[in-house]
Amino acid sequence: MNIPNTPLLEAHGLVKRYGRVTALDGTDLELYPGEILAVIGDNGAGKSTLIKCLSGAVVPDEGEIRLDGGPVRLDTPLAARSAGIETVHQTLAVSPSLDIASNLFLGRELRKPGVVGAVFRTLDHKRMREEALRHLDALGVMTIQNPGQAVETLSGGQRQAVAVARAAAFGSRVVIMDEPTAALGVRESHAVLDLILRVRESGLAVIVISHNMPHVFEIADRIHIQRLGRRVATVTPDECDMTDAVAIMTGAMTLEEPRVGDA
Ligand SMILES: Nc1ncnc2c1ncn2[C@@H]1O[C@H](COP(=O)(O)OP(=O)(O)OP(=O)(O)O)[C@@H](O)[C@H]1O
Ligand SMILES: [Mg+2]
């Protein structure tokens, strides 16, 4: 892959402490336009905390986040969303009792045109369902036929697809996913992996956290390896195999951090 010089999104020296626990110990990250960056690391390595900093859910104690090379403050989820960054967190934030379309538009509901929508704030359910189908179709989620179906009646994979579709529909620059295939079976996982590839095809950059090495090696352009609150290496699937990646992740093998993308 041809890596452009300026990262779209960068983190430098992020530190986050929770009392005596150091979740992030000066971690860096670079995400380049149009790439899928996988983030791997053992339990507690700080992966979720890192992406929470990038999605405005957690404010780091120290460090800097840059977008297009310039510093940004992503102090709230809204600030991150306004910057074009959408996140699917590890604990999936869908509302089971609502239907698919309402979940997709949660917090961004479409109002009816004219006075009815502006003054009475009447929701345009018809348009939301049409748009929901369009978004799901665009991502190739053909197994969902009725956007009026309650999310609690969907399979795990379909639920995950709704969450990914929501992020892809509203993220204009970056989509971040924390363990999107963790709870899924083989078929459902592959549907979500395909979905992630389509999100990249649509021009967005993707950060995906996963413990599943075959999945990581299947879709990632680059792999960020997190250990004890820091990035210890960034590798590519061509130059590093799964055994080595796991060895770096667990500390069994150390590596001078390769400067992938610094060329
Ligand atoms: N809100 C919090 N309060 C206290 N400690 C926290 C909090 N969030 C995270 N931590 C701690 O920070 C460390 C990093 O947690 P984090 O959730 O980022 O790890 P992770 O790499 O995502 O792990 P996993 O693979 O298990 O999801 C852990 O030791 C965790 O216990
Ligand atoms: Mg996590």
From TrEMBL:
Keyword Nucleotide-binding (UniProt): yes
Q: Please tell me the species this chain comes from.
A: Nocardiopsis gilva YIM 90087
The record, for InterPro entries, names: AAA+_ATPase (IPR003593), ABC_carbohydrate_import_ATPase (IPR050107), ABC_transporter-like_ATP-bd (IPR003439), ABC_transporter-like_CS (IPR017871), P-loop_NTPase (IPR027417)
The alphabetized UniProt keywords are:
ATP-binding, Nucleotide-binding
Q: Domain ABC transporter, which positions?
A: 9-253
Q: Name one Pfam family in it.
A: ABC_tran
Query: What one GO molecular function would you report for this record?
Result: ATP hydrolysis activity
Q: Which Gene3D superfamilies match?
A: P-loop containing nucleotide triphosphate hydrolases
Q: Which domain of life is it from?
A: Bacteria
What's the protein here called?
Sugar ABC transporter ATP-binding protein
